[in-house]
Every structure is written in structure tokens, then in C-alpha cells.
Amino acid sequence: MEVVQGLGLFVRGAVTVFRSPRLLLLGAVPALIVSVLYVAALATLMAWLPDLAAGLTPFAETWSEGARTTARVAAGAAIVGAAAAVAVVTFVAVTLAVGGPFYEKLAEIVDDDLGAPPAPPSSWARAIARGVRDGSILIGLSVLAAVPLFVLGLVPVVGPVLAPVAAALVGGRLLMIELSAPALQRRGLAMRDRRRLLRTRRGLTWGVGTPTYLLAAIPLVAILAIPAGSAAATLLARELRGEPTRIQA
What we know:
This protein is mostly helical. It is built from 9 helices and no strands.
């Protein structure tokens, strides 16, 4: 089953990073800086959540207390689900924009250890510019995805359950588009081609992307999840291209 195979790639990517202090440091420093900013934003959202939920459900003012509470809980869950989907993907986009050269180097080291084509010449300024460009595209895609996720979360009974699940699947795939970029760009694939390639094996992509998404949604844990996901995405890129993902004896 491809999802299980993808989970295996994620575990191997995490092990690769955690066994190397150099790789861990490369990935953790940018994520730590951005995490501090996002934790502050999350705290602000949670403080305003009751007011936001009430503002989105004015139609429930005349309902019974139980029905009004249910509607506002559903609205709150929808807000949190949509915000989480946007926050996780934008967190990675912002982190990669800030630490683009670090993550490109991380992916390059993992790729080189397994045998890869020569990396094209690149400067830090070019890596940051590329990260900002691709990150902006992903932020736009995540905002577009947040709208139907929010609507799904408003569906009575099943919405609060289905919305987070859908967010994890959508967010996981978007993360893989971004985190696999260094390895696939190295092989001459533009973003459109990378998206098309990831669609060829959705289960494998979700197997790597979903745990990365879920762990990246946890404050502070994201500091370790992003470099682990970056290494795993490099393995995913190699698997999708039919290249070995283990060191050959």
C-alpha cells in the first residue's frame, strides 16, 4: 500500500536528519525563528476565537442556547481547521523563504549521499528569491483551499471531523510540492511539472506529506518536523523519479 510506503519514507527521512547534527541544525534554526512568530499569532487567534465564532453565526442569536452553542462550536472548529491548513503551509513557505539556502543544502546532502546529478550553481540570494516565489504560490493555493475547508467545517455533526482530515490531506500534498522542490528543481522540473509528478502517486505523497503536516501543526515540534519532512521529501522525489532511495551496497 503506497500510503504505508510513504510513511516509511518519512520515518527514514527523520532518522537521517536526527542521526546527523549538521542536518538537524541546518533545518532547525530557520524553523525555530519562524515558530516563535507563529506561536504568538496562534495565541492571538485563540484569544479572539469566541468573538470570531459569534460574529460568523449572527443567524444563531435567536436559537435556543444548545443550538446556538453547537453552531458556534462548529464555526470555531471551522476557523481553527482553515487557519491550521493555512498556517502550516505558510509556516513552511515562510520558513523556507527565510532559510531557503539551509534547506537546499540539507536536500543536497541527502541527495548526494544516494547519488544525484550535479547541483546547478546557485547563490544564497537566488535561493531566497526562489523560496519567496514558490512560497507565495503555495500561500495562494493554501488560502484557496481554506475556503472549501471552512465551508466543510460548518456542516453539522460531520463537518468538525471531516474538515481537519481534509486539511491534513490537502496541506500534506502542498507541503510536498514545496519540500520536494530542491531535489526536483535539480532535475530540471518546474513547479507545474512537480505538481503533475506528485499527482501520479497520491498515496505515496500523502504518506510522506500527512505526518509532516500533522507534526508541523504542533508548536515547537515543527522545528524538527520541517527538516525531517525535507529529507523525506527528497527521498519521495527520488522514488517518483525511479531512483534508488537507499545507499547501494
